[in-house]
Amino acid sequence: MSATINPLANPKAVKKLCELCQKPAKLQCTKCLVTFYCNSDHQQTDWTSIHEKVCPLLVSIHTPAPFSTLQSDRDHHHKETLKKQKHLLEIAHLEAQRWVSKKRFQEVLPAAVQFLRWAMQVYGSCAVELVPAYLLLAQANIGLGSLSQAHEYLSKAEWTVMKTPGCGNTVLHQLHRTLGRLHAATGKYASALTHFANDVYYASEVFGLASTVTSGGYFLMADVFLKQNKPDVAHSLYTEVANSWHAHLCKMTDGISQSGTQPEECFDESQCVEADQMLRCILEFEEQCVKPHPDQSAMLAHSLAMLWLLCNNYTKALEYGKKAEMLIQGLSEQNKLRESIHNLLQHAEKHLE
């Protein structure tokens, strides 16, 4: 799928359009009978990205209302259809986020386009609810190197936010984070840092300064400082990120050691992948430093072990737990961390027996 496709384009006088590129289509999905494609490659891409998850729901949504003279029946059908449309856009949103976290940007596009299309259907063409879809499409295009298309989607997002008085801080933090990514990709590092600083501000207003969500902005700022050859600044930001994640994961795993069961609040697949990538990146940075910090590396390895323990991957939990145990040897002032690592190893080994 081309990254320069405009999903909002809709050529006149053409009834059957490709789901992905909006060109005249001849292939039809034989399951839902309402989705069309210009070629088999687009059909397979859409199926992998999102269509498999929403195919049955599309049939239900496109089923016409039964003939009835009663307004109450027509109102009920409309209400049920709206509920299904909202469910569909939620699925598309989650799938697009999942592909972004895996950095499989080609697969992001069909799900994000579906998300945008149904958000427009439900909320209208100028609603602030469209902004997350624009941002996902922008992230995908940044990942694919289509920066002009990413800029177009971000312009739509900015315009929508500007026209929405009292727009929430969550949307603003997401907008500035994506704008920062675009400026970093184009080498405009000063602008990127400004947007990431705004991202941290708005995220902290919603989630708190020590939140792992807020720390994502610090992580992206650190990457920019590394590109500017400022490793000391990057290290201080990475330390903030590492501390936030370690405290958060310790809090979550405390429940396991006390009750032996998984906490109610845990990670989904996309969150786990994203956290793993971030923590491993910082750990690799620490290991390559001229002046190593074994206590910091041990804490990061322990964080990765806790993350995979929470995701029920006991093999990886054991792998990183043993690494943390090795790194902490010889450090005399880490008794609490040493005890926590020991308990984690016991828990992981028990599940692998």
Brief description of this entry?
This is MYND-type domain-containing protein. The chain has helices at residues 40-62, 71-101, 105-123, 131-143, 147-162, 169-185, 189-207, 212-227, 231-259, 269-288, 294-310, 314-328, 335-352; strands spanning 27-28, 36-37.
Explain this structure.
With 353 residues, this protein is an all-alpha fold. The protein has a domain at 245-353: Alpha Horseshoe (Serine Threonine Protein Phosphatase 5, Tetratricopeptide repeat). It has helices at residues 40-62, 71-101, 105-123, 131-143, 147-162, 169-185, 189-207, 212-227, 231-259, 269-288, 294-310, 314-328, 335-352, and strands at 27-28, 36-37. Strands 1-2 form a two-stranded antiparallel sheet. Helix 4 packs antiparallel against helix 5 (147-162). The longest helix has 31 residues, at 71-101. It starts with 26 loop residues before the first strand and ends with a helix. The model is unreliable at 1-14 (pLDDT under 50). Residues 18-55 form the MYND-type domain. Keywords: Metal-binding, Zinc, Zinc-finger. This is MYND-type domain-containing protein. Pfam families: zf-MYND.
Percent helix range: over 70%
User: Helical segment tally?
Assistant: 13
Intertermini distance:
46 Å
* Radius of gyration, CA atoms, in whole angstroms: 23 Å
* Beta content: under 5%
